[in-house]
Structure formats: structure tokens, C-alpha cells
Amino acid sequence: MTGTVDGHQVRDPHGLHADAEDQLRQAASEVHRRVGDQYDEQAVRSAVQEAYDEITDGAKIESFLPILVARSAEQKLGQQA
């Protein structure tokens, strides 16, 4: 089950241990929902992958990874514009 917090889609806490691919898909979906009309799908996926690679190295709590990755990717895309 998903819900919305601060404009971001979040998963039910019972499903916090989703695999990395699921987290990437969730983050990319969120970014595309927010800025997809400004960037093509490949640019969004690249920004999400880059943000994920940067954030996961120091991540202590994985439950917030999709939100943090989505925010970081959106910022990266904004800097490219």
C-alpha cells in the first residue's frame, strides 16, 4: 500500500525492504510524475541512478531512499536546465 507525504509517494512501512530495482522504479516514477513534461524518460532514469549511487553509500535507513533519491534526482535535473 502507498500513501502521500509532503507531495511524495511513500510505501507502507511493512514493505520497507524492497529490492534496489523497486526503489529505483519508485523514485523514477516520482520524479517523472513531478517533472516528466520537462525531461525525457532517459534523463530522469539517469538522474535517479546517479542520485541512488551517491545516496546509498552512506544510507543508514533504507525506508527513505526512494524519497531522498527522487528529491536529489529532481535537483540534479534542475541544475542541468
Automatic annotation (TrEMBL):
Pfam families: Phosphatase-like_N (PF21234). Residues 1-40 are annotated as: Disordered. Residues 24-77 form the Protein-tyrosine-phosphatase-like N-terminal domain. Residues 8-37 have a biased composition (Basic and acidic residues). InterPro entries: Phosphatase-like_N (IPR048716). This is Protein-tyrosine-phosphatase-like N-terminal domain-containing protein.
